[in-house]
From TrEMBL:
CDD domains named in the record: GPI_EPT_1
Name of this chain's protein: GPI ethanolamine phosphate transferase 1
Top enzyme class: transferase
Keywords on record: Endoplasmic reticulum, Glycoprotein, GPI-anchor biosynthesis, Membrane, Transferase, Transmembrane, Transmembrane helix
Amino acid sequence: MNIIMFFLVGLLVHVVFFISIFDIYFTSPLVHGMTPQHVPLPPPAKRLVLFVADGLRADSLFKPDINGTSRAPYIRSIIKERGTWGVSHTRVPTESRPGHVALIAGFYEDVSAVAKGWKENPVEFDSVFNESRHTWCWGSPDILPMFAKGATGDHVYTYTYPAAMEDFASTDASKLDTWVFDEVKAFMNSARGNQTLLSKLHEEKNVFFLHLLGLDTNGHAHRPMSKEYLENIGLVDEGVAEMVSVFEEFYGYDGKTAYVFTADHGMTNWGSHGASHPSETLTPLVAWGAGLQTAQRASTTQNYNDDYLKDWGLETYRRVDVNQGVLPLQYLNNSLHFKAESMYANAIQILEQFKVKVTQKKETTLSFLFTPYHKINTSEKRLNWNKKNQDLKVFLTLFLQIRHCETLIAQALEGLSYYHTYDRFFLGSSVVLGFIGWTSYVVLVILKTHASLRKPPTSVGLVVSFFLLLQSSPFTYYIYCLLPVPVWYFVVSFFYRAMLTLGLIILGLWPFVSGLYRKAKMLQVLLCVYVLASTHSSLQMKQGLPLFSQLVSWATLGSSFFVPLLSSTRLFHRLLSILLSLICVYLVLSTGYEALFPPVLSWLMFVWINMEQEAVDTQNLYSIDFAENIDLTRIRQLRLDDIRRSYFFSLFHSFDPASVYCFLTVFNPFIMGGLLMWKVLIPFIIVMCTFESIQVSTRLSSRSLFLIVLVISDLMALHFFFLVKDYGSWLDIGTSISHYVIVMSMTIFLMLLSVMTHILTSKRILIGQKMKMHFK
């Protein structure tokens, strides 16, 4: 297999392995085709007002300041006098989109949904907004449109401010919340003179959604312990109090409005979110108004495994935490009859999902291979018996009804999980076979072991394909199950040349670059230090992002890709050029002392190069040229030391927008994500360039040394594949995903970076002369 074909096949195999984790562990849990269930009793509320303070931590809201004064006196008065409160436990990824989907649609998106779009719906789902008579929303253009587009009909109305207002360098991000409050007041006032709108507002099943982004923006820009963030909490508290007065006055204090105040996610002390730290997953929940329980004193010690109640000064007020799936009855202030009917509707809705899931799985599985879930039958019969017994006035009957519903919900959710993971063992086994087969093939390539030729096992592939076809399996199942077939074929017959039909990719011409490229690079480093300092100072004084700093930052990023190609290909000259170019970019992407990391890492890499050179006693390092070291007769065979070098290399292998403030401050997830990804890759490039230097100085084939690294990385990836979890604590789930994703990303990026670093170290662009291209 030629080197280009090997690279492409290896890249494809690892991309499949990388994607497989989301098909095996994190597919969408949604089920479609159920009949909506409703409570047959009149609702206690005619309308809902939902406040979501984006990025608000539970402790930031509930905990008094150092003087014992509440930062949100109105919300605290609700907790003590009029409503029910608790902690809402969110899940990873603690981002705005999945957080709002969980709040408004009632389910947790799979992790991959974050990468599928911020404003569009990656999957169809129902929501409270969709089931409402009318919904009016005010807030961010990044959140509101996804619920409006997913709604059936034209009854979800959105009012958003311009995206440019989401500026992390803004003088006061709390203006985003002020905008929402002002717009709601103006809207309610205008309705008094608009008879059509007025009649809509007085209908039942209306929802008002106020999305408050100021806290999230101030938290990113100034950190959650900053004056700006804490003062923003007070502004939100005052705004909520004012909104309650507006709605109560508009509806004549009819007592038919329910209010819910919560957050989609929290935030770490350093202003980031997305992971599973308690500061990110614990959010406040306060509910009051029509049909909701008033404040209750705790009659006994509340059993929570934390010290928050004491720290927040709320140990004497009943705390009710919530999770997904089950209706929190303790929040409801209704008759036992209403609670029983509500629980029944909740249970039947989940049971309908279970029945649809069973039907789907039966249709896509051969009958003799289908293994049903049996635990749910008894509970369903008991529930039907209680429903038919119409003596709902009997307290014991109602109590048993509720308990049976809770049992059914628990078992139905367990059954949904059973069928949701039905194919996991089958797909996991196929991926593991692929892992082992690929690793074995790479080892055989390294050892140059010849195997006897055999006919390709096309019959095996046909059998597997026919089996999947009978079960109407998704397209991705064919990839995971058929991948081991050609991989294992190559293990036993990788000299079968008839398989190599893919031609060479034509290389594009290197562009000529003009400009004053011979300036001292240390001046660029000093310029970047100035840019970083001036940007930080400007943002601190709330003067926005300086245009000069922005231009220099983007110019530095762009030039870092080709400036090293203008320098000499002598080993130390080229490494120094690459290092200085990358340090400049890393510097403007830094928020503090992490800017020291690349220089320290580079010093360690130079030590490593010298140690390896001394170990093999080759020519002087200063005389080595990346471009000229192409004498194939000087390339030696692998030794045991080379495994040590590869292992040492393999050892080197959350969202904080502050790192990109020198480039832009207006929220743009894709540009910001790309810049942060490049920052993460810079240390990898430094290490890869060092690795390239070592293989040149030790006269070893770069392909052989790289393959050893690939084998080590694949063994690590296979280990973490078995450790992936979709159950347990949020910390366990997030950590298991992170480990596998990091290792697989490393393996894929190593392949791409090996090509990139080869170009950075050995290619040179000569201005005004004939371009010389050297290939190893």
